[in-house]
Amino acid sequence: MTVVTGVKENTAAASSVTTSSVNMTGMTYLLVGVSNYRGATTTDDATTAVTDSAGNTWTKISGSVATNDSYTEFFHVNSNAPTVSSTQTFTYHTTNAGDFLSIAVLGWDGEGNGVAASPLDQDAGWVLESSGTTASTNTTGTTAQTNELLVSVFGGGNGAGTVTVANKAGASAATWTLDQNQQSASGQPIALAHALVTATGTFGATWTDSASFGAQVGGQQDIVTIKEGTGGGGGGTQYYSFLSVLGVG
């Protein structure tokens, strides 16, 4: 059985956006994708950019170049034992009160086996597309083990179109699920997708937006892979929770 929890909100222009509460009980890995449009070519994350109500420490995995007036980033709790609760909230902080902010939150239990002590395996690096309707991530390096979670985020884009995700041509086989999709012509869009794989390989995702990417807010996308643990719940059952929030500036 698969368990998915999703919540969507909107906020007024501010220097932070906080999600509604979500039940993260049982999750052994936490990751967020965030995206920010601020009309300038520099990032303005706060010193502590991501926080949650359970008091975890968040580490930036990587982020796109702050160009075309926007940027997108991955953060995670670099641990296989994050603090979780049944009413957990998540906040993305910046230093500019007029930002257009979005956040997408993922929790995973490693298919009942937890996750590795150092969860992150591959980060393919960010790709920016400033025109067209299709954008592919880079292809990852070869994954370290057979059972891994793939996560791709798509930030920016037009905001007025329909966004879909598929396996990248030439990449190893993976079946992608679009978990969160916040598209708004008046706010910063973000979308999050995942795939579970049981063989090593080199992976990638292709995002399509039915409305052409704007030159001002290009499509920014990346893919990371997360290592499943080796003990615990007997495998087979996959639990993951998702929560997404769009803050409208």
Outline type = globular
Low-pLDDT runs: 1-10, 232-242, 244-249
Helix-strand pattern: EEEEEEEEEEEEEEEEE
Mean pLDDT: 80
Indicate the percent of residues in helices. under 10%
Q: Report the total helices.
A: 0
Structural class: mainly beta
Multimeric state: single chain
The first-to-last residue Cα distance is 38 Å
Question: What amount of the residues lies in strands?
Answer: 35-45%
* Beta strands, count: 17
In total, the number of domains comes to 1
How is the main sheet built?
Answer: 6 strands, antiparallel
Radius of gyration: 17 Å
Structural summary, described in words:
The protein has 249 residues and is mainly beta. It has one domain. The chain has no helices and 17 strands. Strands 8, 9, 11, 13, 14 and 16 form a 6-stranded antiparallel β-sheet that branches. Strands 4-5-2-7-17 form a 5-stranded antiparallel β-sheet, with no helix packed on it. Strand 4 (59-63) and strand 5 (70-76) form a beta hairpin. The protein is globular and about 45 Å long. The chain starts with 15 loop residues before the first strand and ends with a strand. 49% of the residues are buried. The model is unreliable at 1-10, 232-242 and 244-249 (pLDDT under 50).
